[in-house]
Amino acid sequence: MRKEERMRVDKYMCIDTVLYNSPNLLLVETRRRTEKAAYIICEGLSMSVDTKYNVPLKWDPYMTIPNAEGYPEQEGDIIMMYFPFECAGLKEAGIELAEYINSNMKDYEDIYIIGHSKGGVCIAKAAKWLKKRCFMVFVSAPFMGTVMADENKVKRRLNTPIEYGIYERFYKRHKVDLDIRPTEEPFRNCDYSGVVRHQCVNVISETVNIHTPMDLGCKYLNLRMHYTHGDGIVTVATQKILSVLYSNVRTVYIDASHGNSLSRYLSKDADKYIIA
Questions:
Q1: How far is 8 from 18, CA to CA, in rounded Å?
Q2: Which of 10, 71, 161, 219 has its CA 20 to 30 A from that of 50?
């Protein structure tokens, strides 16, 4: 996406159309184009918004959100999904998302739900509560967790002050981040079985070639974190598990790093990043 299609989040931003705001789920409409198709896109980011004035209270570092021109390749209404910082967990956010769709989106012919990173884990959990058959896309999702959410292991591997300092800048230790530690109970008893009732694509990202500085950084992270195959944050093995468990899930491999896999897959140039 072009730079002008995103806005930097700051305390002066007013979010015009907040559709739903609870301690577990924030839904923001960024574009209304048609009432036939809706795209709910969760970039895996966290933001809490004041319920009275609709201004951001807290947000992930260096966060940007799309404006009305964002996601130009998607023909339909665009609804962005975020995790408030007080969110109780990915399952709780998923249940509320399903309840919102069931109650408020009955008139749409098609509903596309796209989840990146922990957002992909959340919508896979939500699938069992959705009454309407949806199109679901999971991008770079750590279905069995990621070691990057385990501070002790990260500290042993990213063991220089600069490396761990950068990690601490981005890792905020709130509940949805803790939910993707591989040792957490949700992954020992994870239930993604609801995906069998939907049309699903699992987009597995791996940093193969270096196209951008972000790719270079993720190549370095793969090495430091001892990933044989990964996108810098999540291994291919944990992304792949949904495709292994459920035969109805179509699998796409993409040459990308964790931070740019969603934008690459949804762009008009997606084909050049697809790995055969």
A1: 17
A2: 71
Give the Cα separation of 49 and 69 in Å (integer).
22
**Which has the closest alpha carbon to 36: 111, 121, 86?**
111
3 state DSSP class of 22: coil
Q: State residue 1's pLDDT score.
A: 45
Across residues 163-191, what is the average pLDDT? 77
Cα 261 versus chain centre, distance? 10
What burial letters (b/e) apply to 169-206, b meaning 16+ CB within 10 Å? Answer: eeeeebbbbbbbbbeeebbeebebebbebbebbbbbbb
Residue with tokens 């990621």: 146
Whether the predicted model's global pTM rises above the 0.85 cut: yes
Tell me the C-alpha distance between 139 and 142, whole Å. 9
pLDDT, greater one: 158 or 184: 158
The confidence band for 172, taking pLDDT boundaries of 50, 70 and 90, is confident
The tokens for 225 are 């974190």
204 strand-pairing partners? 253
State how far the Cα of 249 lies from the Cα of 90, in Å rounded to an integer.
Answer: 21
